[in-house]
Amino acid sequence: MPAHRRRLWSREHRNWRDNEWGRVLFTDESRFSLSSDSHRILIWRERGSRNHPSNIIERDRYGGRGVLVWGGIMLGSRTDLHIFDAGSVNGTRYCNEILLPYARLFRGAMGLQFLFMDDNAPCHRTVAAEQLLESEDIECMDWPARSPDLNPIEHVWDFLGRRLASRTLPPVTIRELRLALQDEWTAIYQQLIDTLILSMGRRCETCLAFRGDHIPY
Questions:
Q1: Domain Tc1-like transposase DDE: where (predicted)?
Q2: d(C-alpha 189, C-alpha 100), whole Å
Q3: CA-CA distance, 104 to 115, in Å (whole number)?
């Protein structure tokens, strides 16, 4: 059961020290859309007619054209933001576009202490990906299924989305979206990333307190 596995994982990692979390490159994919991801309905109205049905115009819906991105964060550092070209991401693309240029680079810089975290998405668990990680001597963190709430990079995606939404001129084309994502990713303060990673001990404690259920992070 996922909750049981999450409890075991949290119990195992609850007492990790900061330098142990500092070994880990936390990674994930996320999709960003040209449409609003806020699930809010934006309205235009005359003064005094607040929320009148005739004045509500739906302008943005969840979904629409967008891009899939990948990134990695760790104490004191982060990867470049990788933006996938169109098409599904299979094991071959994951090896060629992520593991070889990014995971191998960090493994080379950090040596044997490096620990690579990704989730259990199918493209991450192909035979090709497992063989590549083994051939490059990259140690992977055992990760519990269905646990995005334990991954600190989820908060980075949320922050990135908010930064995009708050732009004076939000992107309206895929090219503008790609450029804006790169700019905002680079502009994220490393202190924010470090704070999120150093919250891992508290996340583990909270997960245990919730008996393995999803936590409010």
A1: 23-167
A2: 26
A3: 11
